[in-house]
Amino acid sequence: MSDAPTDAQQACFEAGIKFGSLYHQFAGTPVSPASTDSLETAMAEAIGNQPHCEWVSVDILDDRVADAIDHDEGYAELTGSLMEVEMRIDYEGTAVRTRMTMEEGYPRMRLVAIEN
Amino acid sequence: MSDAPTDAQQACFEAGIKFGSLYHQFAGTPVSPASTDSLETAMAEAIGNQPHCEWVSVDILDDRVADAIDHDEGYAELTGSLMEVEMRIDYEGTAVRTRMTMEEGYPRMRLVAIEN
Amino acid sequence: MSDAPTDAQQACFEAGIKFGSLYHQFAGTPVSPASTDSLETAMAEAIGNQPHCEWVSVDILDDRVADAIDHDEGYAELTGSLMEVEMRIDYEGTAVRTRMTMEEGYPRMRLVAIEN
Amino acid sequence: MSDAPTDAQQACFEAGIKFGSLYHQFAGTPVSPASTDSLETAMAEAIGNQPHCEWVSVDILDDRVADAIDHDEGYAELTGSLMEVEMRIDYEGTAVRTRMTMEEGYPRMRLVAIEN
């Protein structure tokens, strides 16, 4: 059986687009503890430009960045294990809350709740 | 009211992740009519590695690439207006078909159908 | 004839790496006039983390971003025509100044001067 | 003292641009042993589109990709430690050979030789 998508399904689709965009646009960016603040702000504001995006919070974890840095290099490349992300997407009045955190050693993007 | 996500909503979220990933990983890639085939294959196989991705089809349109190329440069940068993408995502038996094509001059990512 | 690279050649190589990195890391980022400031700062600080990079200045041009935005979308994707970049690279005491600006309608990365 | 760049310096600058472009365009791409071939070809052909690029060879190492993959995920994200790259750049008759390989545990981009 095939159905047209509901507003809640559309909202989940839009939420996924934002997560994939944020991750693959910025993965690989050179980052050090001194540059986490500016990168967090830029990532949140960049993805916040996309439609249906109510808010985005990006937390790049200074201590994990510091641990990931080799002495000779002085920077790490941004990857999922160095950050936590939360977003709220609104599609025609249906809101979706999403989150990326580490679970069992891996970054996982999750639908937290659908709110009508 | 807040509900835990259904399988169909999870499938839509996963479908969105794949679209955002594909777009922002590869946007900006130098492309010419001679290199569209290899880029299409690489994009489809790369995103096909992600979980729940049943198949991916990427069509980079040679004629649009040719039109986008300036004589002096010899290549264009990949963007949404130069390609059409279709994907089928399966989450626990619920399948989602999605598509990106041009609509009114802009590339649009769409949920085409949810199949239980 | 083949020679080992001089410090000036190494400096030019490093300068090119920074330009290619900056461009292809951030090309495609969603941008609006309200988010140019945070993106400029993040780009400059990210690339500034790389070795031999003395300073980086990124200017994303609000008026060009505004012109590139379609009413329905509300954002543009970052590309070379929307920004001007200057960098100073130092390799073992040899400095290289570089710049990307528009020339005849296209963004061009240029070596401006080599300073010993 | 400031001098205008020589052809050899320009060639080194162009070589650096290609390396930075290749790295930051494709870092983060989902990759598995089954998809290394298509990604290698696409990377080489994409960067080969850029001016002054005579040839590019990308070798994504299947065994390192396999080692980098977690069982639950089934794929790794492309990064410098998973690949070896060689390029030959020609600028007005001056050729530059460059290479990225692992040195002491880190990927290093190197100028191998300048050939007049």
Describe the structure concisely.
Chains A, B, C, D: Substrate binds at residues 14, 109. Chain A is an alpha+beta fold.
What does this structure look like?
- Chains A, B, C, D: One of its GO terms (molecular function) is dihydroneopterin aldolase activity.
- Chains A, B, C, D: Homotetramer.
- Chains A, B, C, D: It catalyses: 7,8-dihydroneopterin = 6-hydroxymethyl-7,8-dihydropterin + glycolaldehyde.
- Chains A, B, C, D: Catalyzes the conversion of 7,8-dihydroneopterin (H2Neo) to 6-hydroxymethyl-7,8-dihydropterin (6-HMD).
- 4 copies of one chain form a homotetramer.
- The first copy, chain A, has 116 residues and is an alpha+beta fold.
- Chain A is built from 3 helices and 7 strands.
- Chain A has helices at 7-26, 36-48, 62-68; strands at 2-3, 30-31, 53-60, 76-77, 83-91, 94-103, 106-115.
- The first copy, chain A, has a 4-stranded antiparallel beta sheet with strand order 3-5-6-7.
- In chain A, a hairpin with a 2-residue loop joins strand 5 and strand 6 (94-103).
- The mean pLDDT of chain A is 94.
- The interface between A and B is medium-sized, with 30 and 30 residues.
- Strand 1 (2-3) of chain A pairs antiparallel with strand 7 of chain B, so a sheet runs across the interface.
